[in-house]
Amino acid sequence: MSRDPTDAEPAGAPAGSPDDVLRVRNLTTRFFTEEGQVNAVEGVDFDVRDGEVFGIVGESGSGKSVTALSVIDLVESPGRITDGEVWYREPDLAAEFEDDVPAAVDGEFVDVRRLPEGVRRSLRGPSFSMIFQDPMSSLNPSVTVGEQIAEAVEVQRRASANPRRTRSRTQGYGLGRLLVDTLVPGRGYTSEASEARAVELLEQVGIPDPAERADEYPHQFSGGMLQRAMVAQALAGEPDVLIADEPTTALDVTIQAQILNLLRDLQAEQDTSVVMITHDLGVIARMCQRVGVMYAGQVVERGTLADVFDDPVHPYTEGLLGSIPDMDEPASRLEPIEGNVPSLLDSEMGERCYFADRCPKAMEDCLRPIPMYDAEGSDEHETRCVLAVEEYDEAAALPDGYFESEPDSASESGSADDPAAGEEVSTGD
Amino acid sequence: MADSTGPLDRLFGAVDRVRGALTVSPRTVRNLKSEYRTSALSKVGVALILVVVFMAVFAPFIAPQNPTTQNLDNGRLPPLGFTQTEQQTQTQMVNGSIQTVNTTETVNATLAHPLGTNSLGQDMLARVIYGARTSLLVGLLGTSLAALLGVSVGLTAGYYRGRVDDTLMRFADVSLAFPSLVLAIALIGVWGRASVSVPDPFVVAGVVDPVRSALGLPTPMPDTFVLPGTVIVVVGLVNWVWFARVARGEALSIREEEFVKAARALGADDARVVLRHVLPNATTPILVLATIQVASIILLESSLSFLGFSGTTLSWGFDIAQGRAYLASAWWIATVPGLAIVLTVVGINLVGDWLRDALDPGIEGEGGM
Asked: Using one digit for the tens of pLDDT, what is the confidence trace for A216-237?
């Protein structure tokens, strides 16, 4: 997999152009669990432009998937989006809500988070859509593949056949209709046109004998074929923004490449914007124009592919890049990042750079909240690291074991001082 | 299926839909078959149920007598193969003195009443055959009602979780705390015993009498069938909790599946997600539970009839109650319907076990019912 950024498909929009389709600001999602508050997403900002592939990369548990779910408004209890704005460019929608919800409209942009729930749901499918990680469980095992895709087509068809304002009402599929459809044969939710379109979509994503395969159930498909079917389903609504949450993780390598090529071709063809969420830097290098690196619920570095891959500033990004094998100059050992992602429990999150405890270049300046700094490279290169504005100074470096010796330094709030842990320490003495 | 032209296409379309909704994959069918082949008990269960269903459906044709015809001269006839000796103590005037004479009368079974008669001379076999109708109808309708109620509540609770779940399931727990028989009696006490007379379709169609005459069986047969309406509602209300618990558990786990998330990401609303994506994937455990619930509701109906709370007199439980007084002298009056209950319930449970083992190996060992 080449890491040359010029290898990526040229985007419709030139870099730095103002035509974002999505502007996410300060998105904050918390989970209120029994162990305490978990800050899964902590003030995430990013933009997605027309027809580009924007990558979000990070370790497991860094908040990538929750970010995706937050954008599409599918976070479930005990999780809640506590703050943030999701500005979506859609002139029709903006015109419609200009009078009703003026706070949610700014020019052609609409803050989706401030729209009523029914409208937000009506945006899912035609405006935002999502592909999930595990193809085996992403399709309903009791409904034929063709019918599931046809349903997605039908949702979009009905939405576009009706004026915006009535969308949320007409597109709804009530209990009565469902019962009638189930009991009365030949009166399905899907029309023949939608079913034909489903077969077309299956053909488009490269499934052989699409007409016959459409009548089969998911268990009759292989993993790669299911992921293709998932892609077809997600594209059925012709979404403006397609969020792909680790779309290739569960697949073997040859199928991965096929799915990525397929996604890229379809994306270029339909001019859809894609948010590609992955932990695989190879996927990012192959697919994306711009990248955000996430760590502990925050975007820690952001920029063009070249910025992040060739000129990383944040030691975490460097660590990520250092932990993939280089075929040209094989090192004797890979260099993993020491330690694990933090627990993200609010009570254990200190007022500091969250990466400092694993960072090889942690300094005293890291013991405070770090804002986004401009970094060298393109205009868009920003990082949440003091190294962007100052040189690494060994004199100011934190001593080894700084965070182990002061395990409680992080929990200054003191709300969750674990009495059991304290006892253990005292008996240990 | 798309361009449904003839009625046959529509029928196949409907079958296809039901098949899809019940998640009968080829693997499931394979499991059912292999489990059926290897397990002798499941064959016994299926055979028992087929017999009971056959009796219930074709009762007017196969019953040797009209089950309601009384013949006091033929009271307490024993079943075939048994003779009944009745001792009668009579006081007689013999030659001017009073004597007590013990006479022993031997009553033989007759072919006309193969399982004997009860104290009113009604044919036991005919009553068992007709009683199968009551038991099966109450069992099936009661279970349907319980399933409809319980599954709706359970899916709602499991899908929405949180406060909705707490409220609904606490209510279910309270219902569970009442002994079902006591609750049923209390409800019948409040609502009374309403019954519905359903015309017997075979008799109404006029096909029964000619067939019976040709076979040399007596006519006419009862032209209506009494459905104990309150009992059906009550057993449904008493047993819904089991369905609620199972459906809730299924909903809780299925809602976390990725296809539910995917459906929501594509703009499906709650009703659609629940009915289209959650329910069809929860059918297997619900089906297994329903099978076992039919048996338990048949038992409950018999108990209610035994205690005199049913709305019909053609019921196995009612016959047991009638025979109770004659247990010492005419054991078959209570025993024959008792055996019918036992065999039916055992048969249904065996089929339930077969379905469970074939469809849902994971449920084994859980105290489901």
From this structure: 888 888 888 888 898 888 888 7
pTM of the model: 0.78
DSSP H/E element including B84: strand B83-94
Q: With 90 as the cut, is the pLDDT of residue A67 above it?
A: yes
Phi, psi of A125 (to 5 degrees): 105, -75
List the alpha helices (DSSP H) in A126-165: 145-161
| Residue A276 structure tokens | 């590609």
Whole-number pLDDT of residue B365: 40
pLDDT for res B4: 42
Residue B148 CA to residue B155 CA, distance in Å, equals 11
B31-77+114-363: CATH class? mainly alpha
Round to whole Å and give the CA distance between A385 and A371: 8
Digit-coded pLDDT (tens) for B178-226: 888 888 888 888 988 888 888 998 988 888 888 999 888 888 888 888 8
pLDDT value of residue B368 = 38
DSSP B309: -
The per-residue pLDDT for A51 is 85
Residue range A1-90+239-429 forms a domain whose CATH class is: alpha beta
Disruptive mutation site among A143, A147, A156, A170 for chain B (greatest number of B CBs within 10 Å) = A143
Which residue does chain A place closest to B273, by CA atoms?
A173
Verify whether the Cβ–Cβ distance A234 to B13 is below 8 Å.
Answer: no
Whether ipTM exceeds 0.85: no
Domain boundaries, chain A: 1-90+239-429, 137-238
Residue with tokens 């439980």: B317
Q: Would you list which residues of chain B are within 8 Å, Cβ to Cβ, of chain A?
A: 1-4, 9-11, 13-14, 17, 20-23, 25, 27, 161-162, 257-259, 261-269, 271-272, 275-277, 280-281, 283
Interface test with B, best of A127, A140, A235 (most B CBs within 10 A): A140
HEC letters along chain B: CCCCCCHHHHHHHHHHHHHHHCCCCHHHHHHHHHHHHHCHHHHHHHHHHHHHHHHHHCHHHHCCCCCCCCCHHHCCCCCCCCEEEEEEEEEEEECCEEEEEEEEEEEECCCCCCCCECCCCCEHHHHHHHHHHHHHHHHHHHHHHHHHHHHHHHHHHHHHCHHHHHHHHHHHHHHHHCCHHHHHHHHHHHHCCCCEEEECHHHHCCCHHHHHHHHCCCCCCCCEEEECHHHHHHHHHHHHHHHHHHHHHHHHHHCCCHHHHHHHHCCCCHHHHHHHHHHHHHHHHHHHHHHHHHHHHHHHHHHHHHCCCCCCCCCHHHHHHHHHCCCCCCCHHHHHHHHHHHHHHHHHHHHHHHHHHHHCHHHCCCCCC
Task: Give A185 to chain B, closest Cα distance, Å.
Answer: 5
Q: Where are the domains of chain B?
A: 31-77+114-363, 80-112
Question: What's the pLDDT at B21?
Answer: 52
Q: Which two tokens stand for residue B129?
A: 């055959």
